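FAQ: What does the model actually see?

It sees only this:
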Amino acid sequence: MFVHLDGTRELLDQRVNSRPGHFMPPALLDSQLATLEALDGGEAGIVVDIAEAVPDLVSTAATWLGQAVRLDIAG
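And it is asked to produce this:
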């Protein structure tokens, strides 16, 4: 199961640049985005917009994961 955190390049750039000393330099953002693969239609996953508030992201992901696990156990 995958939780794909999705966002605009602008928002990602803003966040990466606001982390001085972070292990990922901002210069790698474009190559990381070029490498990123969207979820395949057959993969169990959810896409969550990183523009949402962190508590909302966590709630959405946790709810989805809980439902997916229950379905997997039942199925």
